[in-house]
Amino acid sequence: MIRKLLRRVFSREAAPGKGPSSPANIAVARHGIRREHVSPAARKTCEGLQHAGFKAYVVGGAVRDLIAGIKPKDYDVATDATPEQVRNVFRRSRIIGRRFQIVHVMFGPETIEVSTFRAAHDDATLKDEHGRVLRDNVWGNIADDAARRDFTVNALYYDPSSEMVIDYHHGVADLKAKTLRMIGDPPTRYREDPVRMLRAVRLSAKLGLTLDAAVRAPIREMAGLIENVPPSRLFDEMLKLLFSGYAVDCVRRLREDGLHHGLLPLLDVILEQPMGEKFVMLSLANTDERIRAGKTTSPGFLFATLLWHEVLANWEARKFKGAVNIPALYDAMDEVLEQQGEKLAITRRIAGDIKDIWSLQPRFEKRSGKAPWRLIEQARFRAGYDFLVLRALSGEIEQELADWWTEFQDAGNDQREAMLVSDAAPKKKRRRVRGKPKAGTDTAMADNTGGE
Ligand code: ATP
Ligand code: MG
Fold first, then answer.
1. CA 192 to centroid of ligand 1, rounded, Å
2. Which residues are the active-site residues?
3. What pLDDT, on a 0 to 100 scale, did the predictor assign at position 448?
4. Atom of ligand 1 nearest to the CA of 61
5. How much is the average pLDDT of 330-348?
6. Can you tell me whether residue 403 is helix, strand or coil?
7. Ligand nearest, relative to CA of residue 245
């Protein structure tokens, strides 16, 4: 009742972010999305539902990205059909029950997520003691559905049949003005779901949007609420952030807004050590570049880099206390992963990948006998090697070691044999004595050859 009344009041004055109950219908000339730009599966999903007499729109990130000229990662469809009704329209579909029920509709390799219009929370909604919404599965109409979304640019509904965008909250105008504006009162919306703070940072980086002052101002003070978010949810959101293709920018913005403290202990500590920071930023830049070039990336590799300096510190401390080198490394790995696991639910498979990469590192130091041949045959060699290269680039280890492995990989058998370092005399020293230092070689290094 009260909500209806409020909506009627707000409909007179269409305040940005508050939203009128009668939306703007925006034509192609302004938003620019032709139906051919939309994935065939999303189009067929909308058409199928509309033929069956339901409303159906492409919604959320995909509409936002298409208007901004970015290829959407995936497509969501919103409808007034219930999950059961959606299920009955499409042969290849299944109901997924997570926090609320949605339907996955499959067309070839594509899966479209279809959700039924839901209403925003009201006073009766179940919340935790900090105001975080625990359950939100009340059906609603399209206006309710728009109001419960986070940012105005995420509350746009595109109908592929008419090529119109339905916009309740000035999302198109905000997107064109490159502003990220919250629907409703930002502190309230952050309390309902603190992950929205991370989403604000990620979306502003991805789309080059400026955070509206009201969106930005409360973040610093409310950042601590992130601690109440379940680890699995936090992990999903961090994966999205780190693999957005804009991770370097996201981390910079997280720090500017005071969001890195307490949020991610790994970022907390690492970014405060010069060596750790260089390593992490190089790794993030590398990931961004790969993603933007459409190459594959692995969460295991990235998390291995994010946590490496924690492992190094832990490993050193153990060795200092007299522990044996390699067992100490394994214990350090376990402890660091366990500590992080409390905050971020790193899945078991990813933890396995991380450990593989770390445990290969000491093996790169062995450049004699059969060891290099055996290492290069390892399934995870490539990831371990890429990791080694980053360590060298960050200045943690000698560049020469990484270069040796670069050369060794590409070399034929004879050349590999010749490259091996005898156990007694490290090749590095012999080489310097035999050859003249190359032009540009640091004289201090050339002088430092020692006698053989
Ligand atoms: P991307 O897909 O680029 O990561 P997205 O905005 O599509 O960004 P999704 O997680 O796919 O993000 O969410 C789809 C839509 O669901 C959003 O556009 C938004 O409308 C809504 N949404 C997602 N998370 C929230 C949230 N925490 N609070 C309110 N609405 C949300
Ligand atoms: Mg999305």
1. 15
2. 74, 76, 150
3. 30
4. 7
5. 83
6. helix
7. 1
Residue 224 pLDDT more than 60?
yes
Query: Do the domains at 1-184 and 264-421 have one common CATH topology?
Result: no
Once rounded to an integer, what is the mean pLDDT over residues 81-93?
A: 96
Neighbours of ion ligand 2 (CB under 5 A): 61
Is residue 97 scored above 60 in pLDDT? yes
**Closest ligand to residue 64's CA:** 1
CATH fold of 264-421: cca-adding enzyme, domain 2 (1.10.3090)
Residues 83 and 109: beta-carbon distance below 8 Å = no
Residue positions counted in the chain: 452
Give 13-51 pLDDT, tens digit per residue.
344 444 456 899 999 999 999 999 999 999 999 999 999
Token digits of residue 307: 């946590």
Task: Give pTM, 2 decimals.
Answer: 0.79
Q: How far apart are CA 277 and CA 271, in angstroms?
A: 4
- pLDDT tens digits for 154-167? 999 999 999 999 99
Separation between Cα atoms, residue 186 and residue 382, nearest integer Å: 45
Task: Give me the residue spans of the domains in the chain.
Answer: 1-184, 185-236+249-256, 264-421
Q: How far apart are CA 269 and CA 247, in angstroms?
A: 18
Residues with CB under 6 A from ligand 1: 60-61, 73, 76, 149-150, 154-155, 193, 195-196, 199, 240
Here the tokens at position 175 are 């997107």
Closest CA to 211 of 201, 196, 224: 201
Q: By percentage, how much of the chain surpasses pLDDT 70? A: 82
Distance 239 CA to ligand 1 centre (A): 14
Nearest CA to ligand 1 atom 8: 61
Topology of domain 1-184 in CATH is Beta Polymerase; domain 2 (3.30.460)
